[in-house]
Design brief:
Layout (H helix, E strand, L loop, with lengths): L1 E5 L4 H11 L4 E6 L5 H7 L3 E4 L7 H4 L4 E4 L9 H21 L4 E5 L15 H15 L4 E7 L1 E3 L6 E5 L6 E3 H14 L6 E6 L2 E2 H8 L5
Parallel strand pairs: 1-2, 1-4, 2-3, 4-5, 5-6, 6-10, 7-9
Antiparallel strand pairs: 8-10, 8-11
Bound molecules: NADP nicotinamide-adenine-dinucleotide phosphate.
The site of NADP nicotinamide-adenine-dinucleotide phosphate has 25 residues, from helix 1, helix 4 and strand 7.
């Protein structure tokens, strides 16, 4: 499959490119700055394309079979950028995928985005933005999987995770999130809505495969 990675220069994005380098898939890295391209190609991107999620990215998506959204405005910008990127950037990309005939969308959301009002107060704005993007994806008509990791760490991945509809809050290394994303890509379009994801005892591919169901 040809997969567009939105947020490819991010921390999960770079782990995903490395994981995809040894896979049968082609990774197209969506970047904001052309100078990021050489590094990402050395990690495993098959190609790079410059685009901004706050604008139209349809040309960047042409010819892709699937999209992974792992972008985010990050902790160093204000709440307006959370709306612009995490919410509206994701929604724009979902709509563009539909328009371009790309039918498989994998969203990196967040644990607790299902019930933002129950999250910690300082994260509620972010969780609401993620929630709105997830709900838009559910209503889009696309085949999708919403991956909801717990608190991300930069520990080396263990390759062992826990996957479930609603798990007790926990942590997970970014490297293991990337492995789970590759496992979802490998499953192809599925009938699975999505899952919480934290560190656990099950090998990633096995845990993901047991949870997702092929689309009917
Ligand atoms: N932090 C947590 O504990 C946590 C928990 C659960 C889920 N998540 C989610 O995990 C995902 C990825 O996390 P991460 O740590 O890998 O994030 P990260 O390192 O901050 O990477 C985010 C990427 O998004 C890109 N980006 C930002 N605005 C953009 C725009 N307008 N157009 C195109 N690209 C844009 C950035 O590009 P540049 O490189 O050009 O800046 C960056 O590469 C996010 O969706 C986040 O919400 C985080």
């Amino acid at each position: 499959m040809h997969v567009l990675i939105a947020g490819a220069n991010g921390q999960i994005g770079q782990h995903l490119l490395k994981a995809m380098a040894d896979s049968k898939h082609e990774a197209r890295a969506l970047i904001r700055d052309a100078e990021q391209g050489a590094k990402l190609q050395s990690l495993g991107a098959t190609e790079t394309v410059v685009g901004d999620l706050e604008q139209d990215c349809s040309e960047a998506m042409r010819g892709c079979d699937a999209v992974v959204f792992t972008a985010g405005s990050g902790p160093h910008t204000g709440p307006d950028k959370t709306i612009d990127v995490d919410q509206n950037g994701a929604i724009r990309l979902i709509d563009t995928a539909w328009k371009m005939g790309i039918r498989h969308f994998i969203m990196v959301s967040s644990m607790r985005a299902e019930e933002p009002e129950n999250g910690p107060e300082k994260l509620r704005h972010y969780l609401h933005a993620k929630h709105k993007a997830d709900e838009h994806l559910r209503a889009s008509g696309l085949s999708y999987t919403i991956v909801r990791p717990g608190k991300l760490t930069n520990e080396p991945g263990t390759g062992k995770v826990s996957v479930g509809e609603k798990l007790e809050f926990g942590e997970i290394p970014r490297e293991d999130v990337a492995r789970a994303l590759l496992a979802v890509i490998n499953e192809g379009p599925t009938g699975c809505d999505g899952f919480d994801l934290i560190s656990g005892d099950s090998p990633v591919a096995e845990a993901v495969s047991m949870f997702v169901r092929p689309a009917s």
